[in-house]
Amino acid sequence: MKKRAKWSGILLSTVLMGSLLLSACGSQASAPAAGGQASGDGGKKDFTYAMSGVYKPFSFKENGQLTGFDVEIGQALAEKMGMNAVPITNPFETIIPGLDAKKYDAVIGSLTVTPERQKAVLFTNPYYRSGSQIFVQEGNTTIKSKEDLKGKKIGVVKASNYLDWAKKLTDEDKITQYDSDITALLDLPTGRLDAVITDQVVGLRFIKEGGGKVIDVGEPLSFDEQAIAVRLGDQEAVDRLNKALDEIVKDGTYEKISQKWFGRNILQKQ
Fold it and tell me: Which CATH architecture group holds 46-129+225-262?
């Protein structure tokens, strides 16, 4: 009887210990996905920010790690706000609905400020400036400006500002939508496309890195401002991010990140 009582005590202790461990794990797993929750980093709150993750050099995977200009800007802003940076990837075509659903606190994903988007989100001050540019295969002499795109096959990223341009310049059945600008640019030499409309900075870096025999043609279709998006009504977040953005510009952090990725300051008008 004493022996049985001894083993019963050990079994009861083991069960209690397991219950405590499961309770602890359950507490961690139930933490919300976004909204400034406390993290394990010295009690700092998380700053969760989204991007597509397939928009090199702004956000992309390298050796399994998410990196790029947008990622580093988010990290610098989080540091100024005293928060823990948590970059998140989300398909670009659903990135604003994801913000609205509170999957993350902000979008630092090269969102061009447009009147339509201003109805859906609040924007901060611009964090970089660029333009919409036409790119074609090297040696293409039939496309020299936007007027030459009628009836041509154009590649653009899904739900992007460039899709709107393509619809104005060619027939809708001639438009191919991609998850990534780089994939679209790589299709130019294959003959699947006659042109790609994308961000000027993205295309020029693609050319610089030897991504293919591609050239830019004509004047930029537009000069755009990209800003950070937060949910409608969250003016406090806009003010906090604008303050942090001003600080990284003034202390040289922005210049350092921009020079690293583009060899120039892409906030300044060229």
Answer: 3-Layer(aba) Sandwich (3.40)
49: three-class secondary structure by DSSP: strand
Give residues with Cβ within 8 angstroms of 39, minimum separation 6.
Answer: 45, 46, 84, 86
Count of all residues that appear for the chain in the document: 270
Mean pLDDT of all residues belonging to the chain? 86
What is the pTM for the complete model shown? 0.71
pLDDT > 70 fraction of the chain, expressed in percent and rounded:
83
Burial class (CB in 10 A: 0-12, 13-18, 19+), 80: middle
Who has greater pLDDT, 42 or 239?
239
Each domain of the chain, given as residue ranges in start order, spans 46-129+225-262, 131-223
State the architecture of 131-223 in CATH terms: 3-Layer(aba) Sandwich (3.40)
Count, in order, helices (H) and strands (E) of the chain.
Answer: 9, 10
Does the structure show a pLDDT above 50 at 24? no
